[in-house]
Amino acid sequence: MRSVVVLIASTPREEFLKTISLPSIAAQTHQPAAVVLVADQRPICLSDRQRLQTLLGNIPLVCLQNAYLPGAAGSWNTGIDYIATHFAKVYIAILDDDDNWEPTHLSLCLAHSENGEADIVLSGIHVVKAGIIVATNIPASLCVDDFLVGNPGWQGSNTFISGELAAAVGGFTNGLASCNDRDFAIRVLELRPQVTYTSRATVSWQINHSSDALSAVRSPQKLLGVSQFYHKHRHRMSEIQKEMFFNRIERLFLWSKAEIEDEVRSFHVAHSSIGQNGQCHSNPAQSKDYSNCLD
């Protein structure tokens, strides 16, 4: 059976780590082999690390600094690199610093992993706003097309993926401001991995925790991220899918089609680094830096 390593990207937001995510990990009925915490904006000092370690008990805590471009993608990639180097035959379970798992989350994922043969195990998600569950999404079957318009149920905090597959796909798209989960899912699912489903919601995704959250209405980072995503993946979309994409963004975040298209036009893309399909020619496993394709 594979071991499990938990990966968290944080600025760091210590209050969320101390009150939400780390206690959730410590309460797991299946204890992970380690927690890898990657700080994006400032290093985690020794005294802070010691306080965070106390919350985890005997679960080893590894603290790293983002080695790529600022943002969640670079932080996750830093952690994926570390895990690939230090752990063999492992599942990577991602948890956002302000989300939490039910105590059986990791054990349930392992129980549905076909004895470690599954490449990905997906659980369901409760969408929580101000402490109230406003929606529940339990995926049962996913394909690439599902992620072109929206997200049918694969978020950061229910990502449970083999370390080999995470490394093989080149990790996350460095420089992508948002939509990291959808972009990652598209590239992973194109490899036709073995995916299993727990059929239970064991993840609580906390939305609108702060006014600058990506899920906040009119978030500038959300505009940048969806525009980058559209620029990168529009060649895959039918005209109907494009309209559904724009309608969803306007309904949820109040960014219009015209505003997104204006943002895309503002990108200064280095054409020499872009293929006809809009993908970078750089090797993501080596650099994981897609900023020249997105800026």
TrEMBL record:
Instruction: List, alphabetically, the InterPro entries matched.
Output: Glyco_trans_2-like, Nucleotide-diphossugar_trans
* Cross-referenced SUPFAM superfamilies: Nucleotide-diphospho-sugar transferases (SSF53448)
Signal peptide (UniProt feature, chain positions)? none
Q: Where is this region: Disordered?
A: 274-295
Keywords recorded for this protein, A-Z: Transferase
- One GO molecular-function entry: transferase activity
Source domain of life: Bacteria
The Glycosyltransferase 2-like domain covers 24-129
The name this protein carries in UniProt is: Putative glycosyl transferase
